[in-house]
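Below is one such record:
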Amino acid sequence: MLQEIIDSKQDSSVLSFFLSAPERSFSVVEISKRLKMPNQTASRSLNKLVAVGPLKSFSKKGKKYFIINSRYKLLPEMKNFWLKSPVKYQDELFLAIKRLGDIRAAFLSGIFCGQPNLPVDLLLVGRVNLNKLSDFLKAAEKLMGQEINYSIMSVDEFLNRRDTFDKFIKDIFDYPHLMVVDELSGKKRK
């Protein structure tokens, strides 16, 4: 079955994307857009990769998402085979988040990390330009096919809640999450 993936330009392209991208979830629409292939072709490749094992899928509100299966036993060998060059995919989502204002910390959680039941998908800490945030959310929701649940906190509020083991913050850090920006990890609240 792996030989079929290697021999298929589309399957190989999709797998290469997932192996070089940050370990976050992607919708069929986003994959087809990023790889410039029809939705049906992307969907077929994604489902084949789930069946073989290097990807796993989950659903939220009827939309299907795909993420790398970190427990797949051949994953390290696949990364070595596919990623001969150290070039990493520049995730436009990460770049856009960094441009939302004076962002001191930003974390992806929930739907972006295969945990659709968590209450927040994006936590932003710092001063956020609300117009830019609105545009960002429209674009991200279009790619993900659903509403993005987000929270904005000041630096002081975040540090206070983090340092008091607030359940909301704990839920983000106790489950898979991705750090987009973190200038606060060593900081203590005043």
Summary: Strands lie at 26-27, 55-60, 63-68, 101-108, 122-128, 150-153, 178-182. The chain has a mean pLDDT of 89. The first strand starts at residue 26 and ends at 27.
